[in-house]
Design brief:
Largest sheet: 5 strands, parallel
CATH architecture: 3-Layer(aba) Sandwich
Order of helices and strands: EHHEHEHEEH
CATH topology: Rossmann fold
Structural class: alpha/beta
Strand order of the largest sheet: 2-1-3-4-5
Shape: globular
CATH class: Alpha Beta
Number of domains: 1
Radius of gyration: 14 Å
Number of strands: 5
Bound molecules: 1,3,4-trihydroxy-5-OXO-cyclohexanecarboxylic acid
CATH superfamily: Dehydroquinase, class II
Amino acid sequence: MSKTFYILNGPNLNRLGTREPEVYGTETLADIEAKCTKLLETHGINLKFCQTNAEGELVNQVQEAADKACALILNAGAYTHTSIALHDALKLLNVPVVELHLSNPAARESFRRTNYVAPVATASICGFGALGYDMAVTAALHLVKIKTAQ
Ligand code: DQA
């Protein structure tokens, strides 16, 4: 079995730390990556952590995860609300997919209530800020254990 988790991040998440800190907090994506790497190291699992602003690139990364990952954690940013291409790519995965958001999109503008990721995710975590990444890693570890025990 692959021992690599993929954590993929969509548009504008490279600006975490300074982007609307009242909504997304002050931790940077590099801080978050360091924390997740450390957490997974203790379980002997490698991490591929990526961010892209381009929809096609995110689709490529999801396709790569379909071939190589034992779990995918995805914060698709605004593509969550717009991308049928991403929805279709996520259907390629045969491993747990955890949808993640720092904020709670359901409690924000109405356009954020359209969600193309949730229907093809195993589970969703939102509204916990950067802590959500730790929670998603823990949740994905749990889901992988359940799946491998089946
Ligand atoms: C986000 C929520 C999305 O609605 C938004 O477009 C983002 C960030 C979050 O992590 O809260 O870019 O995915």
